[in-house]
Design goal:
The complex is a heterotrimer of chains A (510), B (432) and C (425). By secondary structure, chain A is α/β, with parallel strands linked by helices. Chain A is built from 17 helices and 22 strands. Helices cover 32% and strands 25% of the residues of chain A. Classes of the chains: A alpha/beta (510), B mainly alpha (432), C mainly alpha (425).
């Protein structure tokens, strides 16, 4: 089946997310859609899938114009989608999720669950998945959930399959397996649209590459193109993927974590007996595929987790099981991985957000009252210092771009007297300019003698920033390796393999 | 799994950018420009139109049940003017009574008695304002205090008990009774807060259930001799308040307006300061807008929930105080809350949870109440019509697009955004 | 750098740590202690007679007399034993089996009745009959609540739906002299209330709790207004509805205890018997239910498989209104016989409590509604004898609900997207 998008335009208010985008996907090809975060890839695919209505342009399948009022129409036309955030209902079984939306029924309107199970098994076997149709989706690991998504699409006889950033949640090995599956599907005649911003994957799997920047198609490329060529097309200028960073001058051990375990609200052991230390003036990067305990580890450091065992000491003093307030007062600066959810109050002004974690005492509060003069003065200073682009200190943070929002968080955290700086996914979803700014600031912080922990799922970022790298897998630290460790080794470690010469910690590779 | 809506990333952010013109966030706006801005951006206009719409629907109801209208409808086709005249008479008569019962009685002999309705309005507004402030405060913290009834009753019982059972010197007695009422209400709120903080119990359910628990408890106490029942009486009613404990009348014995109204003005100022100028208020608002970020920023969200609900309920308890020490000083029964608990929710919503907005909304609903009684007496329009009007006002205000559609006003771009005070689409903070 | 070839299986799930919950044994222990205080220390003398059959019954069952003090001691010992057994189960298996809870509850209830009714007699069939009657509006309300919340719309407006149903059914049945038409009218009234809820919460994205609360105020105001202006003007014409007569089901109605309880009821009650299993089956075994639950759990996921979230919510909230409206009709066509001001008196909120206590499951919610109805009936049965004031019996459903949401009675987890509006671009 041939899919063609002609002149697709989609606006959100003043923002043009897609500007006259043309795209042709031939039958049986893997077509990569490459672009930065926010370039408009997902919007385009949501238009294709009927979730959004295009303001202009047309969608053609086998040269016939289509009108999709909703995803139901798109599916009928043979388009399937594997969403970035899986569209599965956690409390339903695999079979129920697969049948949802096109349920077969038996006598009396009774759901034909047996038929759905058989279908799941049949597709599983065809592609070598091992998926139990009766398992509850919420109990499945993310890799398997993704396969359920694929099964869901295939069970509707999709002829065009759209994968929206499918590798974000996968280990390199799972990614390789997914690539095999995609090739298998292509060879069976399915057209595949593969959305990503990761160059390595593109070159490995693509038959054709279309690059999108700021909502426009900026070019096509052959899979043989180099990383640098693709990157400069994607970003619009030659990019230097490395960070300008001198050698570290590590000082004394500042943060010592020993045998730390965390149990979450669902009674899962999410961090399993990890131990590491960070020295003053070094960056320890914590690498790993999303969902391997990094989030909970940083939350435990901050005092945001409640069932924590083991020990955390900062400059010799224990900060385990302390309130967040006490941890912050001990000098821990923190950039949460979801800045909109955990880092900022969107309805507050920049000035208010800049004092958000200092609302208990001087200099922002005196005698229980807000010191409005000081707050304003402070905000003016920080806006200049961190180059926050806004109308003024009273601009609501929710109205800033992602990069400027992150600068507000950075400004707030770095303006305190820090003893430790923890940055979780500090550049997620940012444009390249902001990424450079954030990286520079992090390196500056290190150079001023503050111990830094950077948690990142992006291998590029880890390699660019780290002095040492700790790789997490299933709650444990697989190993701690030097910052110049080859990517291949890191990739294997992210899948739980222990490099020689390293002792396994905890249950990671047990 | 993420609960994000599709495309809730970049595009939506920008969607919100376009909502309010940049000039709307100019630094340090004066009161005058704030008022002007609200009119320009439509909020005040929407509120006005919502009130108008609700009054129109009320008029339709009044007209529909009017006996003269029904009678003339019988021969509408022969003499339609009769029916139209009757309709006009019914509606204008009722609303004229409403106005004269709430603001100024033109039929009165002199100004002193002509203005009496206005003082009555202020009297009715008193509990509405303080209770509305309490509910509004909970809204600002992202909490839903539906338990106004329980808190008013508790406040009334505590203040009332101190008021009739103790003998204290004049001023001290009054202060003791007020404090008792506020603390009583606050304790009920704190209970809700503690349950929410420690077990995650949803405050909506807990406060609704507490309304009935407190009501039945009061019913029991009122019929139990030795508890609250007036000695020697058979009715479920308390003894009258001692004269040392009641709110002094502000304008002398000819008017019902009492000190409680001054208290409600003070309460408005205090709540305004608390929310906008104090660090506790900053934390309240931070928790209300984004509890997750507040928690990460070192604010103890659980404690904030307890404090917010306690203060909120304490204010609502103050409404109970106003009822027993000001409005009905001759002893009270189980209906002393007079529906203020639920009215307070509508007052807070109409006031958009802003202290002075609540004050104004309280005055409006106080006027509707005062006028409603006049309407009932003069035009036999049951006071219940006020409930209908009141709830319609709130419904219309909560849905500006509807009001705009009815009046054919242009819809602002990007209007599909939650306008409720609750961060309901956000993740629940883990409170375990 | 070489790599040790020790690979993990990627698909294995995360480690679950089993946390033993001592909550249930502790609660059971507390109740056993309560039993000790009430039934033994504050024990009463005499014999309580349980009359199990009515004189007109075909099959006669002899009344059972239970000595109060002796049974109190026996029951307390039994209850303590159950609590200990529960603790043993937690120690050895980590959780308490359901049958212990059920047996515990049964023993406690029977002994409580024995103790509180002493030294008089208890008309068991009459009591159960009344329990059903008091539960019917709760059950319909709760079913409406379950459907509405399962599809993702919090339904505080059950109270308003009941009241509107009661009002309209009284009026229509009075005018037409047809209780059946009244029943249909009640359903339409419930649907109309639902339309308000749906329009404001789904279309205008107003917070669902706010809409619900305001609707309840609105319906109280409207029915009161119309009652005093219209109904009370000509009550014989507009407010004297014919009631549904009780229909004896042959054979079944002759079974002792069960027969008179369940099979000498009116049409509305029989509708309950149909509605509960139907809703249960529908929710969990049909396309309708699967889609409904999907929309309530994860609306975007439902949207991406072509289910129209808004439409699904709209129509199911309307259906919920129709069912709750039926419950309203019971007030006027089933029990009281005429509409009066605010006659539902907070039953809608008890129905909401039943929804939560029943964990959003139609069967459990029905059981919860029956329990609440029973608690309500007890205050009449025990009016003269009980040492516990009736107000405290009336309080029971509300207290139990607070305990339930506070997590003392099992984990309460509602539909994930309930209360959250679905905003599509």
């Amino acid at each position: 089946m041939k899919l063609e998008l002609r002149g697709i335009t989609k606006r959100f208010g003043a923002l043009i997310a897609n500007d006259h985008i043309d795209l042709v996907v031939e039958p049986g090809e893997i077509h990569c859609l490459l672009g930065e975060n926010g370039a408009g890839k997902s919007t385009l695919m949501n238009v294709l899938y009927g979730l959004y209505q295009a303001d202009d342009g047309e969608i053609l399948i086998d040269d016939v114009e289509q009108h999709f009022a909703g995803p139901g129409d798109a599916m009928k036309a043979g388009i399937g989608m594997v969403h970035q955030h899986f569209m599965l209902i956690p409390v339903f079984t695999v079979a129920e999720n697969v049948m949802l939306g096109h349920e077969e029924t038996k006598f009396g309107g009774r759901l034909d669950l047996a038929g759905a199970r058989a279908k799941v098994r049949e597709i599983s076997e065809r592609f070598g998945f091992s998926v139990d149709p009766d398992a509850l989706v919420e109990d499945l690991p993310v890799g398997v959930q993704q396969r359920v998504e694929i099964i869901k699409a295939l069970s509707r006889d999709a002829k065009v399959l759209v994968f929206d950033e499918p590798t974000a949640v996968l280990t390199p090995q799972e990614t390789d397996e997914l690539i095999v599956i995609m090739k298998q599907l292509r060879d069976a005649g399915t057209s595949i649209v593969f959305i990503t911003h990761k160059l390595r994957e593109v070159r490995e799997v693509a038959d054709r590459i279309t690059i999108i920047r700021l909502g426009k198609v900026v070019g096509e490329a052959e899979p043989t193109a180099t990383n640098a060529e693709l990157a400069s097309l994607m970003v619009g200028r030659a990019v230097d993927l490395t960070v300008d960073k001198g050698p570290e001058k590590p000082g004394a051990e500042a943060l010592v974590v020993s045998n730390l375990s965390v149990i979450d609200a669902r009674n899962q052991l999410v961090v399993n007996a990890v131990s590491f230390e960070v020295r003053a003036g070094e960056i320890l990067a914590i690498a790993g595929v999303q969902g391997n305990g990094q989030t909970e580890l940083t939350e435990a450091l901050l005092g945001l987790q409640h069932r924590v065992t083991g020990e955390i000491t900062l400059d010799g003093k224990s900060i385990r099981n302390r309130s967040v307030r006490e941890v912050l007062d001990a000098g821990v600066g923190f950039i949460p991985e979801d800045r909109q959810e955990d880092g900022l109050v969107a309805e507050f002004t920049i000035a208010e957000n800049l004092m958000l974690d200092r609302s208990t005492g001087a200099p922002f509060i005196r005698g229980g009252a807000l010191q409005r003069g000081f707050i304003a003065e402070f905000a003016e200073k920080k806006i200049g210092e961190f180059d926050i682009r806004a109308q003024g200190i009273d601009t609501l943070v929710g109205k800033l771009s992602g990069g400027n929002q992150q600068k507000v968080v950075l400004a707030r955290e770095l303006s305190r007297d820090l003893r430790l700086f923890v940055a979780a996914q500090p550049t997620r979803g940012l444009d390249v300019g902001s990424i450079e700014f954030v990286h520079t600031r992090i390196v500056q912080t290190r150079d001023s003698g503050i111990p830094v922990i950077v948690v990142s799922t992006e291998l590029d970022e880890v390699v660019a920033l780290a002095d040492r790298i700790a790789v997490m897998y299933r709650g444990g630290i697989v190993g701690i390796v030097p910052g110049d460790t080859p990517r291949e080794t890191l990739g294997l470690m992210m899948a739980g393999e222990v490099p020689a010469g390293e002792t396994s910690q905890g249950g990671a590779a047990a | 799994m993420s609960d994000q809506i599709p495309g809730s990333g970049q595009p939506q952010e920008d969607l919100e950018v376009s909502q309010v013109p940049p000039a709307a966030r100019a630094p340090e706006p004066s009161v005058a420009t704030t008022v002007l801005r609200q009119i320009v951006t439509g909020n005040a206009l929407i509120s006005l139109l919502a009130v108008l719409l609700a009054l129109i629907v009320g008029a339709i109801l009044i007209v529909a049940v009017d006996p003269v209208v029904q009678q003339t409808a019988g021969y509408f086709f022969s003499r339609p003017s009769d029916m139209l005249q009757a309709m006009w008479n019914a509606a204008s008569g009722a609303y004229s009574s409403l106005f004269q019962g709430a603001i100024y009685n033109f039929g009165a002999a002199d100004f002193a008695s002509g203005i009496r309705p206005l003082t009555l309005t202020l009297t009715f507004a008193t509990p509405l304002i303080v209770a509305g402030l309490g509910v509004a405060l909970s809204f600002r913290v992202g909490l839903f205090n539906i338990g106004g009834q329980a808190q008013i009753l508790t406040g009334a019982v505590c203040a009332g008990y101190v008021g009739f059972a103790f003998d204290l010197p004049p001023v001290i007695h009054l202060i003791a009774a007020i404090v008792a009422g506020v603390v009583g209400g606050a304790l009920v709120g704190a209970l809700v807060g503690v349950l929410k903080a420690r077990t995650g119990a949803h405050e909506v359910i807990v406060t609704i259930m507490l309304n009935y628990i407190v009501l039945y408890l009061l019913r029991f106490l009122l019929r139990t001799p030795g508890a609250l029942q007036a000695p020697g009486g058979n009715n479920p009613k308390t003894p009258p308040m001692k004269s040392t404990a009641i709110y002094p009348l502000l304008l002398g014995p000819n008017y019902t307006l009492h000190l409680g109204f001054i208290v409600s003005i003070l309460a408005t100022i205090v709540v305004w300061y608390l929310l906008n100028r104090s660090n506790l208020g900053f934390q309240f608002r931070a928790v209300g807008e984004n509890p997750n970020a507040a928690r990460v920023a070192g604010i103890n969200v659980k404690n904030i929930y307890v404090w917010a609900l306690a203060i909120s309920a304490g204010l609502v308890g103050l409404a109970g105080v106003a009822q027993v020490l000001g409005t009905v000083t001759s002893g009270f029964g189980e209906s002393i809350d007079a529906g203020v608990g639920f009215d307070a929710i509508t007052v807070a919503l109409l006031g958009r949870s802003r202290p002075w907005g609540v004050f104004a909304a309280g005055l409006l609903f106080g006027a509707l109440k005062a006028g409603g009684f006049a309407m009932q007496a003069n035009n036999s329009v049951p006071i219940d019509i006020i409930l209908v009007v009141q709830s319609l006002i709130v419904l219309f205000i909560a849905a500006p697009p509807l009001v705009r559609a009815i009046f054919r006003l242009p819809q602002p771009p990007g209007s599909r955004k939650l306008r409720t005070p609750r961060p309901s689409s956000k993740k629940v903070v883990v409170t375990r | 750098m070489t790599v040790v070839a020790e690979r993990n299986i990627v698909v294995a799930g995360p480690t679950t740590v089993v946390i033993k919950s001592w909550k249930i044994p502790i609660i059971l222990g507390a109740f056993a202690l309560l039993a000790l205080v009430l039934f033994v220390i504050l024990g009463r003398n005499g014999t309580t007679t349980f009359i199990l059959a009515e004189p007109t019954d075909f099959l006669q069952v002899a009344p059972i007399g239970i000595p109060v003090r002796a049974s109190g001691i026996v029951a307390t010992v039994l209850l303590a034993a159950f609590a200990v057994l529960g603790a043993w189960f937690v120690r050895s298996r980590g959780r308490v089996p359901l049958w212990i809870d059920i047996l515990f509850g049964f023993v406690f209830l029977v002994e409580f009745l024995t103790w509180a009714a002493a030294p008089a007699s208890v008309q068991v069939p009459g009591m159960l009959l009344q329990t059903i009657a008091l539960s019917v509006p709760l059950i319909f309300g709760a079913l409406g609540g379950v459907i509405s919340e399962r599809v993702g719309v919090v339904n505080i407006a059950i109270e308003g739906q009941l009241l509107a149903g009661a009002f309209v059914s009284a009026m229509i049945a009075s005018i037409t002299h047809q209780p059946l038409l009244g029943l249909i009218g009640a359903m339409v009234a419930g649907v109309l209330v639902s339309f308000i809820l749906a329009a404001f919460s789904i279309k205008y994205l107003v917070d669902q709790v706010i809409v619900g609360v305001v609707i309840n105020v609105f319906i109280v105001g409207l029915t009161n207004f119309l009652y005093s202006t219209v109904l009370s003007e000509s009550p014989e014409l507009l407010n004297s509805p014919p009631r549904f007569e009780a229909i004896d089901i042959p054979v079944l109605s002759q079974i002792p205890v069960i027969g008179p309880t369940f099979f000498r009821q009116s049409l509305i009650v029989y509708l309950v018997y149909v509605a509960v299993p139907l809703v249960w089956f529908g929710l969990f075994h049909t396309r309708w239910g699967l889609r409904l639950r999907a929309v309530g759990e994860h609306p975007q996921a439902a949207d991406t498989v072509g289910i129209n979230v808004t439409r699904t919510r709209f129509w199911n909230v309307s259906l919920a209104g129709a069912i709750a409206g039926l419950g309203g009709a019971f007030f006027t066509l089933g029990s009281v016989g005429a509409f009066s001001r605010e006659m539902t008196g907070g039953q809608g909120y008890i129905a909401l409590a039943a929804v939560i206590f029943g964990r959003w499951d139609p069967i459990r919610a029905t059981v919860a509604a029956l329990l609440f109805g029973f608690a309500n009936e007890l205050q009449y049965v025990l009016q003269d004898t009980s040492p516990i004031p009736s107000e405290f019996m009336l309080m029971l459903p509300y207290v139990v609900t607070i305990l339930a949401v506070a997590g003392l009675v099992g984990q309460v987890r509602g539909p994930a997207a309930s209360g959250k509006p679905y905003i599509k671009s």
